[in-house]
Design goal:
The chain crosses the membrane at residues 42-61, 105-129, 136-159, 165-184, 271-290. The chain has helices at 5-12, 27-37, 39-57, 93-128, 132-146, 149-155, 165-173, 178-191, 195-202, 207-218, 220-243, 255-263, 274-298. It is mostly helical. Helix 4 runs parallel beside helix 8 and helix 4 crosses helix 11 (220-243).
């Protein structure tokens, strides 16, 4: 692994006299150091932490719940009693916006984790086991690639009723893993020819053990970056589906449902639309900045972190 000049110099610097040479930093420490030196990565991470704190701790600061209604303040602008204003129903915009951000963040994180895990397993098994296993898994991947994901999720929207958002996350995950799976498969085929994999096979190590102990750890950088970028993809997909009424269903809310409702009154009551739209843009931008910085930190051939 080629390291930046400053890090190479640090590794070559002799240790304290009498204590021997300094131990070279682990790959994980090098990646963390490169990530934190990236201005865009540090900024994205800071904004993301603020978004999570706002989503999950912010509701504690307001006397209003997302289910409460103020029947004396319909479609009122921001004020001391309603910081983000109110909706046509009298709901507090601050409360429902943070509730929607909670749901969208949870859906994005879970969908990204499930889809990345699925891509890792399918790609690794397809690449390691040639023959019928590879052909079957590759056929399944190609089939899902050509299916219209948005249309299928829209058709299944009647089953995404109240309390079934976990099913929606699962269905969303099923259409986010295929491209990464093909990349994992090709990298597994290459890793399978490496000496340490061959040695493990000659020693009688089971194939499944080799996959989980040797193949997948060597693909960790790809999987971590893919999971990070999948968060923003899942949030945007959930927002699009919910905007058209195919995602999170009432009485629960998400970014998509709030933007759909706010777009009807955005001209004469902009606070019903722009607060949630702004938080969506900031959240997705922060996730993408973190993903790009992680990709640069894991890639030893990249330029100095920005």
């Amino acid at each position: 692994m080629t390291l930046p000049e400053e890090e190479v110099a640090e590794e070559l610097t002799p240790g304290v006299p009498g204590r021997g040479p300094r131990r070279a930093p682990s790959r994980g420490r090098v990646v963390v150091r490169r990530f934190l030196r990236s201005r865009q990565g540090a900024a994205g991470l800071a904004v993301l932490v603020v978004m999570f704190l706002l989503a999950f701790a912010g509701p504690l600061l307001s006397p209003w719940s997302y289910t409460d209604r103020d029947f004396t303040a319909f479609l009122q602008p921001p004020s001391a009693s309603h910081w983000f204003g109110t909706l046509q129903t009298g709901a507090d915009v601050y409360a429902v916006t943070l509730r929607g951000m909670q749901k969208s963040l949870i859906v994005g994180l879970l969908a990204a984790l499930v889809s990345t895990a699925l891509a890792a397993l399918v790609g690794a098994f397809a690449g390691y086991f040639p023959g019928w296993a590879d052909r079957t898994l590759t056929w399944l991947t190609d089939l899902l690639l050509v299916l219209p994901a948005f249309l299928i999720l829209a058709i299944m929207s009647p089953v995404f009723g109240e309390g079934t958002w976990a099913l929606f996350v699962l269905m969303l995950s099923l259409f986010l893993w295929m491209v990464t799976s093909k990349i994992v498969r090709s990298m597994t085929v290459s890793l399978k020819r490496r000496e340490f994999i061959q040695a493990a096979r000659f020693m009688g190590v089971r194939p499944v053990t080799i996959i989980f102990r040797h193949v997948l750890p060597n693909l960790s950088s790809l999987l971590i970056v893919d999971a990070t970028l999948n968060v923003s993809a899942a949030i945007l997909t959930e927002t699009s589906l919910s905007y058209f009424g195919f995602g999170i269903q009432p009485p629960d809310v998400s970014f998509g449902t709030l933007i759909a409702d706010g777009s009807k009154t955005a001209v004469y009551a902009p606070w019903t639309f722009w607060f949630v739209a702004g938080l969506l843009v900031v959240t997705v931008l922060a996730v993408n900045l973190v993903g790009d910085a992680l990709r640069d930190a894991f890639d030893p051939t990249s330029t100095r972190p920005r």
